[in-house]
């Protein structure tokens, strides 16, 4: 790959600019790049800084290690949830970070290897373009894992990209979509083998330097305005967010993850 213009690393998020393209890497491969609060904050900060950086004309998000893009939010962070404000605050936080990426004015590309689930699926959905290897598994299997729910905004984003039928399959049946099916559905723009995907995505991202900047910004902004007209207010899902996150089932599912304790769904 080409010589770095500049390179910055943190423990959990890498940041690299090459040939006018910013590469943001989620770097917790031992946890399949599950997102911590620090990682969400770092992504938000990079978005804020890159808006004003005229030397960067596109952004690529990717997972480090080859096994996952992002395997959701780190479940251990839910162990302290005890009141409705914890649940609503978390969903608002995710909405803010995902929304900032969604409205980022420059082209964004998700390079997806392996697991792209939960919070990772939300991040990938709002990128302008998605490119995957054959190992991609995309979905939100919370009906099997945690028993929580998405916010109304993230449900809307899934419907926009997957349609109603596939959104219900993803959320209610906990289905994970493979790369071939995602490509056929239009969720993934192209599929590449693992040994070439980084070079191919770099070529695609670098090509935006040769396109009219105002047209790119206008196109993205106007698509965003059209989608925004179909969405409800953020508090439209607060009742179900509170119900699910404050449930015995959710607490037991988190405890199973943290302490390896058995449980069965109770519906309470």
UniProtKB/TrEMBL annotation:
<dbReference type="Pfam" id="PF00378">
    <property type="entry name" value="ECH_1"/>
</dbReference>
<dbReference type="GO" id="GO:0003824">
    <property type="term" value="F:catalytic activity"/>
</dbReference>
<dbReference type="InterPro" id="IPR001753">
    <property type="entry name" value="Enoyl-CoA_hydra/iso"/>
</dbReference>
<protein>
    <recommendedName>
        <fullName>Enoyl-CoA hydratase</fullName>
    </recommendedName>
</protein>
<dbReference type="InterPro" id="IPR029045">
    <property type="entry name" value="ClpP/crotonase-like_dom_sf"/>
</dbReference>
<dbReference type="InterPro" id="IPR018376">
    <property type="entry name" value="Enoyl-CoA_hyd/isom_CS"/>
</dbReference>
<dbReference type="GO" id="GO:0006635">
    <property type="term" value="P:fatty acid beta-oxidation"/>
</dbReference>
<comment type="similarity">
    <text>Belongs to the enoyl-CoA hydratase/isomerase family.</text>
</comment>
């Amino acid at each position: 790959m080409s010589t770095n213009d500049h390179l910055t690393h943190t423990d959990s998020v890498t940041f690299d600019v090459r040939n006018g393209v910013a590469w943001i890497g989620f770097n917790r491969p031992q946890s399949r790049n599950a997102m911590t609060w620090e990682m969400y904050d770092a992504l938000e900060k990079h978005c804020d800084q890159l808006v004003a950086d005229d030397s960067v004309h596109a952004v690529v998000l990717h997972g480090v290690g080859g096994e996952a893009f992002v395997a959701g939010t780190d479940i251990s962070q839910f162990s302290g949830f005890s009141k409705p404000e914890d649940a609503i605050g978390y969903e608002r936080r995710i909405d803010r970070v995902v929304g900032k990426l969604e409205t980022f004015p420059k082209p964004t590309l998700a390079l997806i290897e392996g697991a792209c689930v939960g919070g990772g699926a939300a991040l990938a959905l709002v990128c302008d373009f998605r490119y995957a290897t054959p190992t991609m598994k995309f979905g939100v299997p919370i009906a099997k894992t945690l028993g929580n729910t998405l916010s109304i905004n993230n449900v809307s984003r899934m419907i926009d990209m997957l349609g109603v039928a596939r959104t219900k399959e993803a959320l209610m049946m906990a289905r994970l979509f493979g790369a071939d099916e995602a490509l056929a559905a239009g969720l993934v723009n192209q599929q590449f083998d693992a040994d070439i995907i980084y070079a191919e995505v770099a070529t695609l991202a670098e090509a935006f330097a040769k396109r009219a900047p105002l047209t790119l910004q206008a196109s993205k902004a106007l698509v965003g305005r059209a989608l925004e007209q179909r969405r409800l207010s953020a508090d439209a899902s607060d009742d179900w967010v509170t119900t699910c996150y404050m449930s015995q089932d959710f607490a037991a599912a988190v405890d199973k993850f943290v302490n390896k304790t058995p449980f069965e769904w109770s519906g309470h």
